[in-house]
Amino acid sequence: MTGALLAGAAVGLGLYALVRALFPARPGLAAGLAAFDRARAADTAGKQNRAAPGVEQVSGLRAQVGRSVARLYESRGWEQRSVRADLALLGRSYEGFLATKFLLPSAALIFLPALVAYTALLDVGGGLALPTWMAVLFAAFFFVLPDIQLRQEAAQRRRDFRHVVGAFLDLVSMNLAGGRGVPEALMSAAQVGDGWAMVRIRDSLANARITGQTPWQALGRLGEDVNIGELRDLAAALTLVADDGAKVRQSLTARAASMRARELSDLEGKAGERSQSMLVAQLLFCFGFMVFLGFPALVRVLTA
């Protein structure tokens, strides 16, 4: 009875998804305008990405599948801002990520006949039920696997980016103390170092000069793209300098100091967690050693 209910629910869900895919709901005016803005922004970003050497380029079947899935997401209004920010931080293509996310489960389902033959060879029984559930579980795992990997890699790279932003704030503050203006101080600070994060900041400032934007607008846009709050705060502070003439050098120094203190506290917390994990591992090792020593004596007492 339970199997029949589950099978009926799966069939009904599949039919509902098929109908929604074949006859999508008509988007409203706001959704249409938002899709138009996203398409225009994606076209501009695509031109910039093709000019940038470090951005992933997708072609072939992967590109076709990725574009089709991206259009489906846009028609549904699924923006996935956090995923786009992580991909922008890692220099990867959104279409390539979607293609990987949907091709991996498809590859898992393709091996369903092999699973059927394997279970029949082992004489496990159950007919098609066991291999079907195994294929579905593998497909679900491979569907969420790209998201897990993306979050882990983006979190590590975002921590590195924040570390570079702290050093960049110190450099900007020193240049301001030397009597330079804000644009000159930003460009001079961005010239120090050739790491990937500093290169992103330098390229953003250079593109702002070409397109006629202010440097703080470019930093704010970069902070929005890669989801770095410190860059957005820096852009807001520099906007106050341009609009109200506020003194920002002391504020930048304080921001850099607070960022270093937060990074130090995070490192201390991680060191404490690793120390606790090492202590637990040592206790488990000692327990296993005691079991190894006492097991022969216990067996001899029980069999006497």
Description:
This protein has 304 residues and is mostly helical. It has a domain at 157-268. The chain is built from 12 helices and no strands. The chain has helices spanning 2-22, 29-51, 61-76, 81-90, 94-110, 112-122, 129-177, 182-190, 196-211, 215-226, 229-244, 249-303. The chain crosses the membrane at residues 6-23, 102-122, 128-148, 279-299. This is Type II secretion system (T2SS) protein F. Residues 168-294 form the Type II secretion system protein GspF domain.
Poorly predicted runs of 5 or more residues: 45-53
What general outline do the C-alpha atoms trace?
A: flat
Using DSSP, what is the number of strands? 0
String of helices and strands: HHHHHHHHHHHH
Question: Rg, please?
Answer: 28 Å
Number of helices: 12
